[in-house]
Write a structure and sequence with these properties.
Elements: E1 2-8, H1 14-27, E2 32-37, H2 56-64, H3 81-84, E3 86-87, E4 93-96, H4 107-120, H5 123-127, E5 131-136, H6 143-150, E6 156-161, H7 165-182, E7 188-195, H8 203-212, E8 217-221, H9 225-232, H10 237-240, H11 245-257, H12 271-299
Parallel strand pairs: 1-5, 1-6, 2-4, 2-5, 6-7, 7-8
Antiparallel strand pairs: 3-4
Helix pairs in contact: 1-11, 4-6
């Protein structure tokens, strides 16, 4: 069983990429499980036609009718796999960890405890997935969201980023967390996925960043109206437009993720190196804005 965890800044497209990778692997005949690890609980929606599923934390709270933090009542409670695991596209097993009631507990800690519950009730043994994909909120500055790295929950971490500064800043923070625990049995970095977001599209900035931290880009996902349309219907582009160019890109990415590349301990950039990178990004953003403005003026 191979376990892959997707990280990245909020809104960077982790769920889109993770669900399409899951769909692509399922199309190849693999038994896939997708575990959404975001308190919003919307990571698996594109695998189930936009149909929500009960989260693990919700099921646990219903058992005791309490707003307590997950680990305060997880043990000793009888949970059946069919209460927390649901079938999606091509038989993909879907689960959502959910989170605590607002203002109570730590959602990051809840991820580790929820996954522990899935193991304890025999989900991995009984269903026997070939691949488990985790879609994890990227805010690992919170110690709870860093627990999955510290405990080596996945075989490799994949960071999704665009070329804007805040995305790369978040990616560098995630590299810090990975580096901190890598030598103590924690999850290592398997590589980056470049996802076009915002006005600036500059894969070379991301390529340089990935090389400087000691890793590489595994795939590049373009901006696509077909992706947006697919998600309106609660589907992946693999399902809705299987012959599209972007579907082929996802198929290539899923194959790359299954290769036996050795994950690494990254070397995060220093504050001064990040500042230097920020200046370059601002400069390229300004150049891109000026070019677009001139193009628009010529069209008028």
């Amino acid at each position: 069983m191979i376990q892959i965890a997707f990280f990245g800044k909020g809104g960077i497209g982790k769920s889109t990429i993770a669900s399409n990778v899951a769909a692509s692997l399922a199309e190849k005949g693999l038994k896939v499980m997708m575990i959404g690890c975001d308190p919003k609980s919307d990571c698996t929606r594109n695998l189930r036609g936009d149909v929500e599923i009960p989260t693990i934390s919700e099921v646990l709270r219903e058992k005791v009718q309490s707003p307590l933090e997950i680990d305060e009542f997880i043990y000793g409670k009888e949970i059946r796999p069919e209460e927390v695991v649901f079938e999606g596209y091509k038989g993909i097993l879907c689960a959502e960890t959910g989170g605590p009631e607002p203002g109570v507990g730590c959602a990051g800690r809840g991820i580790v405890i929820a996954v522990d519950l899935l193991k304890r009730i025999g989900v991995f043994d009984d269903f026997g997935p070939d691949v488990v994909i985790y879609d994890i909120l990227g805010d690992i500055v919170c110690g709870g969201f860093g627990m999955n790295l510290r405990q080596g929950m996945a075989d490799k971490a994949i960071i999704v980023t665009s070329s804007d500064y805040l995305s790369l800043y978040a990616a560098n923070n995630i590299c810090r967390g990975i580096s901190r625990y890598a030598e103590r049995g924690g999850t290592r970095l398997g590589g980056f996925v470049y996802n076009v977001r915002g006005a600036l599209d500059d894969i070379e900035l991301v390529r340089e960043f990935s090389e400087r931290v000691g890793s590489k880009i595994l795939g590049s996902i373009p901006s696509s109206n077909e992706i947006a349309e697919s998600e309106i219907y609660g589907q992946t582009i693999i399902q809705r437009y299987p012959q599209s160019k972007v579907s082929k890109i996802f198929n290539a990415l899923s194959e790359r993720l299954m290769e036996g590349d050795e994950p690494v301990r990254p070397r995060p950039l220093t504050s001064s190196e990040l500042s230097s990178l920020a200046m370059r990004i601002r400069g390229r953003t300004k150049e891109d804005f000026t070019r677009r403005k001139k193009d628009a003026e010529r069209e008028r």
